[in-house]
Amino acid sequence: MNKDQQISNVKIKQVSLFVIILVLAALICFNLALFIPSVLGAITIYVVCRKYNFYLQEQKKWKPWLSSLVLMLASLIILILPIYFIGDLLIEKLGNAQAYMAKFNIFLEKIHSYIYSKTGFDILSKENMDKLKSSVGQFSTKALSGTFNTLTVIMSMYFILYFMLDKPRLFERILVSSAPLKRSNVSLIGEKMRKLIMANAIGIPVVALGQGIVALIGYFIFGSPSPVLLFALTAAASMVPVVGAAIVYIPVCIFMIAEGNTGAGLGLAAYCIVIVGLTDNLLRFTLLKKLENVHPLNTVFGIIMGMNIFGFMGLIFGPIMISFTLLLIQVYRNEFADEDVPPDLKLANEADEVENKLIY
Q1: Is residue 155 part of a domain?
Q2: Does residue 147 contact residue 91 with C-beta atoms inside 8 Å?
Q3: Which domain holds residue 103?
Q4: Burial tier of 4 (Cβ tally within 10 Å: 0-12, 13-18, 19+)
Q5: What distance in Å separates the CA atoms of residue 316 and residue 139, rounded to the nearest whole number?
């Protein structure tokens, strides 16, 4: 082997150290996998409360423990309880899996029979009907089983969050110094993550609750079955882009018409298409556009992945993880391909470095 082709000792040491770090990180994550949702939740709430925490501690001169406890209580009331309420409501209503699946099967058969009798179109064969029933049963069981440990996740999340909020400057300084990246890329990750978390932790739940409440009014007005359960399902479904709440209220409207409540079913359909749809567009194009423009595919695949990993809380954490992965790809390019970075971005990065030096 030529001398130029030999691997330098420095590179060998770098690779060896990287492998050791990777193995240790894998061991830590594997053995503490139960607390991953808690850590993600703590980071999410920390980002949301960060500005107010600095304001209370550094400008209002509040004691760190007092500021931390007040912000934790506020986040519990404003952010966590509405989401937990929807999850708990679904558990209460769908807790009896056998009774729920029996009702769902009747509901599905009624819709299928009505469409077939009116149009002659066999929307689902018997084989596909059985597959759909089985898939829904497995998904609901998995989602609910992942939601049963929500209380434990919330308790450990707030335990971790307290130490983040108590000494925020120290916490951020440790993160920045530990990151094996340029200061400019650390700033880029921080700013992007702040926007993503604000959009997912505040924007998406607000849109979901808004649509759910507006739909609930319609469910009561037109006498739909189980309006409170439909409210929870509509709020959860509205987090899915494109189809959204329609995957709940359209089958309900068809079911009501098939039951003979034609006027109420058509009225509910018109109400949901116009009022609920308008609410969705209004909230998405005002609130979410101001926070962060998250691509719909990120949300779709993030929700699917998040529900499988974290249960109901994955509705928020899943899209964040997908977006964070794409962000790391961008950071990798910035880190190792400086020649492709535009001059204005380089100037912005240098400005970020100066600002970080002043902060830390």
Answers
A1: yes
A2: yes
A3: 34-359
A4: exposed
A5: 18
Q: What is the DSSP letter of 2?
A: -
Q: Is residue 194, in this structure, part of any structural domain at all?
A: yes
Residue 234: what residue type? Answer: T
Please give the angle made by the CA atoms of 174, 335 and 359, to the nearest 5 degrees: 35
Distance separating alpha carbons of residues 248 and 273, to the nearest angstrom: 12
Residue 1 within any structural domain of the chain: no
Residue 3 domain flag? no
Return per-residue pLDDT of the chain as tens, 360 residues.
555 556 677 778 778 888 888 898 888 878 877 787 788 888 888 988 899 999 999 999 999 999 999 999 988 887 777 666 666 666 555 555 445 555 566 666 777 677 667 666 555 555 555 655 565 555 555 555 554 466 777 788 899 999 999 999 988 888 888 777 777 777 888 888 887 787 777 777 788 888 889 999 999 999 888 788 888 888 878 877 667 788 888 888 888 888 888 898 899 999 999 998 888 778 777 766 666 666 667 777 777 777 777 666 677 777 888 888 888 888 888 777 654 445 544 545 554 554 444 444
DSSP code at position 35: G
Task: Tell me how far apart the alpha carbons of residues 222 and 41 are, in angstroms, rounded to a whole number.
Answer: 38
Cα dihedral 109/110/111/115 (nearest 10): 100
How many domains is the chain built from?
A: 1
Does the predicted TM-score (pTM) go above 0.70? no
Could you tell me if 111 and 254 are in contact, meaning their C-beta atoms sit under 8 angstroms apart? yes
